[in-house]
Write a structure and sequence with these properties.
Low-confidence stretches: none
Mean pLDDT: 87
Distance between the termini: 17 Å
Structural class: mainly alpha
Largest sheet: none
Number of domains: 1
CATH architecture: Orthogonal Bundle
Helix content: over 70%
CATH topology: MetI-like fold
Length: about 280
């Protein structure tokens, strides 16, 4: 990584973002939900009328923008990590079974994938949130339902190829169990691809979470999140640009860092690209 300046910078920036989110109660200068109408629409510190105590200004009800961005990172990163972890595990297992066992099981799983891909994501989110209510848990469930098909299709395609390799045939002839073949000899060859896809999907999930929160379909509106902050600032774009700009910058920087790291991982873990 020392030879890749972009990846090193991205890792450092992402590490600082994660650290700030984890240590939010100690790092944030104010309570993210504390309102003070005397500070309503106060500009950033470097503009006229700004205050050094509120470095990035205040929103339409006087809440500190910097504190809300720091706490909002907790929501975005938590949703991204949990949704990708659960969707990756679920999709990998189903894709593995579909590719290795084949037959009727493969047909059932792949038709489920086709059905999932035919349902518009926003419609799925609206239905689930309308039935079960807006909450962090339901948001993660929506993103898991949306994301598992990516891993299932990827893993199935690679397992279909790997199970026909000569070393797998030799293992079967020698009497190795199916479980041993899958876990000891096929799964290790899938890890690099799964890790790269999971990294890139994390960035995608963060954008989706922000979009749903912007539409009011994400987390509880009382919970600080980058998407909710964007929604709050859309009516003040011309009069108070900082309300939407700073959470937008936070989303952009985080997603950019994750994508750069994902590209670096792909280059390092794929022997064909190294060659």
């Amino acid at each position: 990584m020392r030879r890749n300046v972009g990846a090193l910078v991205a890792l450092t920036a992402l590490g600082l973002i994660v650290l700030a989110a984890v240590l939010a109660p100690e790092v944030a200068p104010f309570d993210p939900n504390a309102q003070d109408l005397n500070l309503r629409l106060r500009p950033p510190a470097w503009q006229g009328g700004g205050s050094r105590a509120h470095l990035l200004g205040n929103d339409h009800v006087g809440r500190d923008i910097l504190s809300r961005i720091i706490y909002g990172g907790r929501v975005s990163l938590t949703v991204g990590a949990l949704a990708v972890l659960c969707a990756g595990a679920f999709g990998t297992v189903l894709g593995f079974l579909a590719g290795y066992r084949g037959g009727l099981l493969d047909e059932i799983i792949m038709r489920a994938v086709d059905v999932q891909l035919s349902i518009p994501f926003i419609l799925l989110a609206i239905v689930i949130m309308a039935v079960f209510g807006v909450s962090l848990q339901n948001l993660i469930i929506v993103l898991i339902i949306y994301g598992w098909v990516v891993y299932a299709r990827l893993v199935r395609g690679q397992v279909l190829s790997l199970r026909e390799r000569d070393y797998v045939t030799a293992l079967r002839v020698l009497g190795a169990s199916h479980l041993r073949v899958m876990l000891r000899h096929i799964l290790p060859n899938l890890v690099s691809s799964i890790v790269v896809v999971a990294t890139l999907e994390t960035a995608n999930v963060i954008i989706l979470e922000s979009g749903l929160s912007f539409l009011g379909l994400g987390v509880d509106p009382r919970t600080p999140s980058w998407g909710t902050m964007l929604s709050d600032g859309r009516d003040y774009v011309t009069s108070a640009w900082w309300l939407a700009t700073f959470p937008g910058v936070a989303i952009t920087v985080t997603v950019l860092c994750i994508n750069v790291l994902g590209d670096w991982l792909r280059d390092r873990l794929d022997p064909r690209l190294r060659a």
